[in-house]
Every structure is written in C-alpha cells, then in structure tokens.
C-alpha cells in the first residue's frame, strides 16, 4: 500500500540529559511546528530577558493541549522521510511503567539519551533495563551535548562502548549510537562539520529506519471484559480489543470459565451496530447468542485460540515500592481488566539494573528488577508477553498505588485449555 508506516517511540534518559530539547529540535527540523510558533516563543524569551530553550516548545504545546486549544494534536508527532512518528510521553518511572504496562501505549522503538559530559549514569542503565523489560528491541542511543565536550570523537567512543556493552548484555543491540547537540542541531537532521568524523545515521534517519511492530490485529483475539450493560433487554459485553479481530457470527470462548458462545452482534460502543470485522484498539460492545455469566475481568478469545486459565504465573517485574518485595507478600495484581489478590510464592531472581549485578534472590528492592512466582487467589485468563505484548502485562498494587509491574513470562498449564 501507499500508507506511511506509523511508529511509536519513547524518549528516555537521565533527567536533564536533554529529552525535551531533543523533542523541540525534532519538531523543528522535521517542519512539524505550527507556523510562527518558534518565532513567537523566541520573542517571548527575548522580551523576558531569558535565553530561548527548545524545551519551551514542549511546554507550550503541552499547555495548549491541556487547555484544549489544539484539539487535533492529542499527541506529539512528526514525519520523517517515510514514517509518521508518534511520541509517547515517558515522564517518570511510575507513569512510564503504568502507561506501558497497562497497554495504554506500546512503543515500537526508543531513543535513549545520554549527556556527553555526564556519561552513562545509573538511571541511564535502568532505563535500558526498562526498555528490555517492556520488550522494546529497537533502541537508538543519542550522546547529547557534544558541544560540551568539544565534539570529541574519543569521548563519544568511550560512551558508545559503555552503553552498547550494557544494552547488548540485556539482549538489545542498539540500532545506532549518534553524537548530537540537541541545542544546536548537530546530528539531529544533519551531519554537521562538528561531527565530520561520524559516519552513522542522524537521529531523523535512525527514526526513519524503525520497523513498526507486527500489527496487533494479526494476533489472536483478546477482548478483556470491562463491563456488562443492559440496554433494551439486551446484555452488552463491553471492552477494548487488545489484539486480533472479531465480528458477528464468531465462535468465542469466555475465559477463565471456558464457556462457549457465538457473537450475535457487534456494536461500536455505546450503541450503533457496526458491520464487518473490528480490530485491535477498538472499543466495542458485543451481544451473545445465549445467556451466560460474564463479568469484568473475563477475557474473550476465539474457540481454539483462547488464553490459558491459570492460578500460577511467572513474571519479570520492575519494583517501585519503598518496601522490598519478599516471598510470602500478599498483593493486588491487575491483568487486563482483572483484579485479583496474589501471593508471592518465590523470588527467583533479583537484579540491580543500575549495576546489572544479581543480588541474593530473597527480596526485590525499589528500582530493581526480578523474577517472581505468583499464586493467584482466583483463576484468571493469562498470556505470556512474548506472544501477546499487549495482554501479557501485569501491574502490582499495594494500598491502591502502583508498586511494580512487568511482563508475564509463563503461565502454568491451564486445567481447562479451551479447544
Ligand atoms: P530533560 O530533563 O532530559 O528533558 O532535559 P532538557 O531538555 O530540559 O535539558 C536540560 C538542560 O540541558 C537544559 O538547560 C538544556 O538547555 C540543556 N541542553 C539540552 N541539550 C543540550 C545540548 O545539546 N547542549 C548543551 N550545551 N545543553 C543542552
């Protein structure tokens, strides 16, 4: 086809290493700013006697978005030669994890930014680990503020070696390591004279080379049930299609109970019937050909390709809570729309992603990563993240707040695998 592939990216890195500046620059260099915006902000800075900062652009766009002025720009996006690039906000650990894990956003690729003077920091390494944890395999590294190190090829080489070794150790080979000055523009869209020694892609070229993830439509159907509504005597099962497609007439199975039904009608929520297949990302309401007990937290799949039902999961998680996670801990686990109590049966592994050092596997400390074995209070429908990047995620809560989250590594064989 002739449609431009859309890729979603996150930009991560240690605070102050230049994320906002790079975004402002990218918007400018790709001609994505509204007419006059840059000039206006420069004039405002001058009037206030402040030096212009590229990050002001981001603040200004954010403010407009909050005030609902630019209704059509619900997210920041720009175009490269052959791609539409959408930027997913990655403000902080907790929010980033929440967005990524709850599936609000799935990034195809990431840019990891490092200040050339400061070098690779613990937070940089942690972000690398997070990207790997979230299954983001395409990572471009940018070494920013090269102007602060006189565009030294040596300094660049040292940082490049260090971060590449770290990422490769995690199983992620960087797609490029790029020397840039986000403030001045070197390496962002152009290889300037300052970095004449550099032969790789610019940031814009690296983004242009990103491959979109496999469309979620092509995976098996997963419809986590959000709610059941009664409408004119009809019971409508509502939720968002996380993967796959569905349409009226499909034979489905409701997990974990394993009950079978046929889809009678598909409504685009709230109540207009829709024709034809509906795919991933769509919120739908469906009616069934028979009265069955369905509840929030159930997952609908096609007969023969449904998720497993299980009370036992193995997960790789990132821990955010002050209190270290230990075996025996009682938690609330969220999987899709399901919420269930769970007990940590065992801590299999605990790693400090800053140091990448394994620790005694008895507790997972704040900002550390680990593998755990969970026993759930009730059977749930679950998928490994490897096969279902969207529904194979879980969030752990303590006292109503996110304490950690990550990926389902494996699901203990279902007692009732649907056939
Ligand atoms: P963030 O916290 O990662 O979003 O970082 P910002 O984009 O806000 O940048 C932090 C500071 O670094 C700001 O004062 C920027 O002006 C400065 N900065 C960003 N990029 C560059 C650069 O390429 N060169 C220099 N010298 N300063 C930069």
Task: Explain how this protein is built.
- The chain is an alpha+beta fold and 419 residues long.
- It is built from seven helices and 24 strands.
- The strands form five sheets. A six-stranded mixed beta sheet has the order 2-3-1-4-5-6, with helices on both faces. A six-stranded antiparallel β-barrel has the order 7-8-14-11-10-15.
- The chain is globular.
- The two termini are 36 Å apart.
Could you give the count of β-strands?
Answer: 24
Strand arrangement in the largest pleated sheet: 2-3-1-4-5-6
Individual helix count? 7
> Which strand-content bin applies to the residues?
35-45%
Mean pLDDT: 88
Radius of gyration: 23 Å
The end-to-end span amounts to 36 Å
Shape assignment:
globular
User: Structural class from helices and strands?
Assistant: alpha+beta
Bound molecules: guanosine-5'-diphosphate
Helix coverage percent of residues?
A: 10-25%
Oligomeric state as shown: single chain
- Which ranges are low-confidence, i.e. pLDDT below 50, for 5 or more consecutive residues? 70-74, 414-419
**Strand count, sense and closure of the main sheet?**
6 strands, mixed
Descriptive tags:
single chain; 419 residues; alpha+beta; six-stranded mixed sheet; six-stranded antiparallel beta barrel; 24 strands; globular; disordered C terminus; binds guanosine-5'-diphosphate
In a nutshell, what does this entry contain?
This protein is an alpha+beta fold and 419 residues long. It is 19% helix and 36% strand.
Give the helices and strands, then pairings.
Layout: E1 6-13, H1 19-29, H2 37-47, H3 55-67, E2 77-79, E3 84-88, H4 93-101, E4 109-115, H5 122-133, E5 138-144, H6 153-169, E6 176-179, H7 203-208, E7 223-231, E8 234-240, E9 245-246, E10 251-255, E11 259-268, E12 272-273, E13 278-279, E14 283-288, E15 299-302, E16 308-319, E17 325-326, E18 330-335, E19 338-352, E20 357-358, E21 363-364, E22 369-382, E23 393-398, E24 401-411
Parallel strand pairs: 1-3, 1-4, 4-5, 5-6
Antiparallel strand pairs: 2-3, 7-8, 7-15, 8-14, 9-13, 10-11, 10-15, 11-12, 11-14, 16-22, 16-24, 17-21, 18-19, 18-23, 19-20, 19-22, 23-24
Helix pairs in contact: 1-3
Bound molecules: guanosine-5'-diphosphate.
Guanosine-5'-diphosphate binds next to helix 1.
């Amino acid at each position: 086809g002739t449609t431009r592939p859309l890729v979603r990216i996150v930009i991560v890195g240690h605070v102050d290493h230049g994320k906002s500046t790079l975004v402002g620059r990218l918007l400018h260099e790709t001609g994505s700013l509204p007419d006059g915006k840059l000039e206006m902000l420069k004039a405002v800075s001058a009037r206030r006697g402040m030096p212009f900062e590229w990050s002001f652009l981001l603040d200004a766009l954010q403010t407009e978005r909050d005030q609902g002025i630019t209704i059509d720009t619900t997210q920041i996006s720009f175009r490269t030669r052959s791609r539409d690039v959408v930027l997913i906000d990655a403000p902080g650990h907790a929010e980033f994890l929440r967005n990524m894990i709850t599936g609000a956003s799935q990034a195809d690729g990431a840019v990891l930014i490092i200040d050339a003077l400061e070098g690779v920091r613990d937070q940089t390494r942690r972000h690398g680990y997070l990207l790997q944890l979230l299954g983001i395999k395409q990572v471009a590294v940018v070494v920013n503020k090269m102007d602060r190190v006189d565009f030294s090829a040596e300094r660049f080489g040292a940082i490049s070696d260090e971060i590449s070794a770290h990422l490769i150790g995690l199983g992620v080979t960087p797609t490029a390591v790029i020397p840039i000055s986000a403030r001045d523009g070197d390496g962002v869209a152009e290889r300037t004279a300052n970095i004449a020694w550099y032969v790789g892609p610019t940031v814009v070229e690296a983004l242009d080379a990103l491959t979109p993830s496999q469309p979620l439509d092509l995976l098996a159907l997963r419809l986590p049930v959000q709610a059941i509504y009664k409408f004119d005597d009809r019971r409508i099962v509502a939720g968002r299609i996380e993967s796959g497609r569905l349409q009226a007439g499909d034979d489905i199975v409701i997990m974990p109970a394993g009950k079978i039904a046929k889809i009678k009608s598909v409504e685009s929520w709230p109540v207009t019937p829709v024709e034809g297949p509906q795919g991933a990302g769509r919120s739908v309401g469906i009616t069934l050909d028979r009265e069955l007990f369905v509840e929030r937290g159930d997952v609908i799949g096609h007969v023969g390709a449904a998720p497993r039902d299980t009370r036992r999961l193995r997960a790789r998680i990132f821990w955010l809570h002050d209190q270290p996670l230990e075996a025996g801990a009682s938690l609330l686990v969220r999987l899709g729309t399901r919420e269930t109590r769970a007990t940590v049966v065992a801590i299999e592994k605990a790693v400090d992603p800053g140091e990448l050092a394994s620790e005694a596997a008895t507790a997972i400390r704040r900002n550390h990563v680990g593998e755990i074995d969970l026993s759930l209070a009730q059977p749930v429908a679950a998928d490994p993240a490897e096969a279902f990047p969207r529904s194979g995620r879980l969030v752990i809560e303590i006292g109503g707040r996110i304490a950690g989250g990550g990926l389902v590594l494996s699901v203990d064989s279902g007692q009732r695998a649907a056939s």
